[in-house]
Specification:
Number of domains: 2
Order of helices and strands: HHHHHHHHHEHEEHEEH
CATH superfamily of the largest domain: Histidine kinase-like ATPase, C-terminal domain
CATH architecture of the largest domain: 2-Layer Sandwich
Number of strands: 5
Strand content: 5-15%
Radius of gyration: 42 Å
Structural class: alpha+beta
Number of helices: 12
Largest sheet: 5 strands, mixed
Length: about 400
């Protein structure tokens, strides 16, 4: 039998109770009641007891029917009918197992219904039981004292307790499932962001190499037009070298992406191999993946700009590990006198904007401007500083989202 209160519980609440045990107990109670009351006739008082026992057996077994089989509006009326038949059977056979049906009514009402309707059904069950026992005594039928009838309402509290327990277990399991779904969703989001990051990292490495190759080929074309084939061959040789270097960097990027933290100093040395020296100052410390990526991307952008705007110019790189910050400085000098310039290859400036956005999310800084004095005067300096300590998870998540948008744009 379905009850309206069951619809207030999560659909999984009923499944927490061992249905096989519950059904087995109900069947056992019905069988024992029929065995205890045998033999029964079909006439007179025995016939009435037989009819009441049959109806109560149907109610006991029917409470295990699937939810929704009986309209919810019938729940309270059916329980009231069950209370009437159970209390009548209690008054006629209060000294046998059949008296347990009246207790089943109150317990079932406490579990299935809300507190108000459950208390009303239990009170009706107790009142009818006490009244029928008093009538049985008045007619000389052997029965328990009428006060015993009041005790049939007590199982309603047990039913309410079981209902609350099942609801708490259902809520706990639902919360666990929600947490699992949230974790799976976050894992999918991180996987997608990581996939975009990997694809863009490979793109950056190839774009960095190919842009250098393109500039060297353009330079060789200019030299050929200027009647200098020897230097043109040198430029073509440098283009071949950049292709080989790009392949090495691509392999290194794929291998580095499998690690949680990229090898910063080694990656920078590989990037500037043959173009400039990398000086490491201070004791190297382990940085977060986001901070390492910011410095590597900044170095790539600075190297690409140097090759684009000042081919052949001197390059100096300094990686400075400080107590609370790691600073990267890339200085490139002007194009040497007598060397063809590539000033016409103007950039969009978006690389510097992207560097600043990434560094700002990590609490870092980016400075870029001309070099006014020193041996590289007339050149360009890019300075990037990032905190040595990783930021909170929310900041790292924003960094990955920004990085993903930059990479897919």
């Amino acid at each position: 039998m379905t009850a309206s209160g069951a619809r207030e519980l999560p659909q999984t609440a009923i499944r927490f109770r061992d249905q096989r045990v519950q059904v087995g107990m109900s069947v056992l109670a019905v069988v024992l009641s029929w065995i205890w009351l045998r033999p029964l006739g079909i006439d007179g008082l025995d016939g009435l007891v037989l009819a009441l026992l049959l109806v109560n057996s149907i109610f006991v077994l029917g409470r295990h029917l699937p939810n929704g089989l009986v309209p919810p509006a019938w729940d309270v009326p059916l329980l009231c009918c069950w209370a009437l038949t159970a209390s009548a059977l209690l008054s006629l056979r209060s000294l046998g197992l059949a008296s347990a049906f009246a207790y089943f009514v109150a317990g079932h009402a406490g579990y299935r219904l809300r507190v108000g309707p459950a208390a009303a059904v239990a009170t009706l069950d107790a009142g009818l039981s006490a009244g029928f026992l008093a009538i049985a005594h008045a007619r000389g039928i052997p029965a328990s004292p009428w006060v015993v009838g009041l005790t049939v309402a007590l199982p309603v509290f047990l039913g309410m307790a079981n209902r609350s327990r099942d609801a708490a277990v259902a809520s706990t399991l639902e919360a666990a499932r929600s947490a699992q779904r949230a974790a799976e969703s976050e894992a999918r989001e991180q996987a997608l962001a990581e996939r975009a990051r990997i694809s863009r990292d490979i793109h950056d490495v190839l774009a960095h190499s190919l842009s250098g190759v393109s500039m060297q080929l353009e330079l060789s074309e200019m030299l050929l037009d200027g009647g200098d084939p020897d230097r043109a061959r040198e430029a073509i040789g440098r283009a071949h070298s950049m292709v080989r270097e790009g392949m090495v960097e691509a392999r290194r990027a794929v291998g580095a992406l499998r690690a949680e933290v990229l090898p910063l100093a080694q990656t920078l040395q590989a990037q500037f191999w043959g173009a400039g020296d990398v000086t490491v100052v201070g004791a190297p410390t382990e940085l977060s993946t986001e901070a390492t990526q910011t410095l590597i991307r900044a170095a790539q952008e600075a190297l690409t700009n140097a090759r684009r705007h000042a081919p052949g110019g001197a390059l100096q790189v300094r990686l400075d590990y400080r107590p609370h910050e790691v600073e990267l400085v890339v200085d490139n000098g002007p194009t040497p006198a007598g060397r063809p310039s590539a000033q016409s290859l103007a950039g969009s400036g978006m690389g510097l904007v992207g560097m600043r956005e990434r560094a700002a999310l990590l609490g870092g800084r980016v400075d870029a401007g001309p070099i006014l004095d020193g041996p590289l005067a007339g050149g360009w300096r890019v300075l990037v500083g990032v905190p040595a300590e990783p930021g909170p998870a929310s900041v790292r998540r924003q960094y990955r989202q920004l990085d993903s948008r930059k990479r897919t744009s």
